[in-house]
Amino acid sequence: MVQIEDLQLAATLLREESLSAAARALDVTPSALSIRLRKLEARLGLSLATRTARRLSLTAEGERFARDATALLGQLDSLCESLQADARQLTGLLRISAPFGYGRRHVSPLVAEFARAHPGLRVQLDLYETPWPDRHDADAIIHIGAVRDSSWIARTLASNERWLCASPMYLHAHGVPRTPRDVAKHSCICIRENNEDVTLWRVRRRSRSSGRASGPPETVRITPAYSTNDGAVARQWAEEGLGLVLRSEWDAAEAVAQGKLVRVMADWQFDNAPITLLVPTRNGRTGRVQALIEFLERRVGQHGAAA
User: Fold this and answer.
1) 45-67 average pLDDT score
2) Which N-terminal residues, if any, form the signal peptide (predicted)?
3) Which terminus of the chain, N or C, has fewer Cβ atoms within 10 Å?
4) CATH dotted code for 162-270
5) CATH number belonging to the domain at 89-159+274-306, selected among 3.40.1190.20, 3.40.190.10, 3.40.50.880, 3.50.50.60
């Protein structure tokens, strides 16, 4: 019979990249964990993982068992929470994944605020270059940009426009672009991320009456003068006068307010990159995840992308 310790073992192996890392997470020795894994495989009559000196990889059967084990553990946690007399006393581990830049600046303080309100929780915040679709082991994922082909539920927390910006020094020396055609004549800074075509910028003119994009879509193909995979570096280069940068509102708003950057072509709308919260379907959702959803919708929704 499969025991809860077996489910915890499988779920941990799904999260960790090596047997030693899984052993540390479960507070046992690697040899003890290896013995437990072999015994579980013997009971199931299946090979759950392949092992090398440096890495452990789950087999197809092992990955299925681990994902089902993770779901079962979540359901057990949810059952325990539903039996608590005071639903506000949340307990257990809450795992959140977010992108590096937005995670450091905005998610981290919000998670700290949420944790202070629920001292019974253990909170784990992991920052990644691309938390979606890579990190399915999280309980909640904050993603910036469009979400496609997901079985998880996506909730938009903020619209988060992309702003075209440059430093006052650069604009004084090279002029202010007014139309999409002007942009291609300027030095442009690009951020390589999410396997997107970062040299193709899509834009639509805003209606003067409503402020919403209403004109036909146009595209601008640029040749990057500078490129990086770090958004903070791209913004810094723009502040130092190297060129135009297309950056998320959440990242550019403070620099614009301080006068380090100037937003240009505000009467044109570039593709939005909405800030989205991804959570499992309701059947696999715990009370602590539901509380996080309500908290983030309230806090980010009230104050926008720069909350």
Assistant:
1) 79
2) none
3) N
4) 3.40.190.290
5) 3.40.190.10
Flag whether pLDDT at 52 surpasses 70: no
Residues forming CATH 3.40.190.10 domain(s) in the chain: 89-159+274-306
1-83 has which fold? Arc Repressor Mutant, subunit A (1.10.10)
Mean pLDDT of the chain: 84
Tokens 């507070």 label which residue? 27
Among candidate residues 110, 95, 108, 225, the one with its CA nearest the CA of residue 170: 225
Spatial distance between the Cα atoms of 32 and 77, rounded to a whole number of angstroms: 26
The number of beta carbons lying within 10 Å of the beta carbon of residue 214 is 13
Which of 75, 135, 132 lies closest to 289 in space, CA to CA?
75
pLDDT above 70 coverage of the chain, percent: 86
Amino acid at 66: A
C-alpha to C-alpha distances, 233 to 14, 167, 177, 257, nearest whole angstrom: 33, 14, 22, 19
pLDDT at 88 > cutoff 70: no
CB 49 within 8 A of CB 57: yes
AA identity, residue 207 = S
| pTM listed for this prediction | 0.63
Q: What is the pLDDT of residue 227?
A: 92
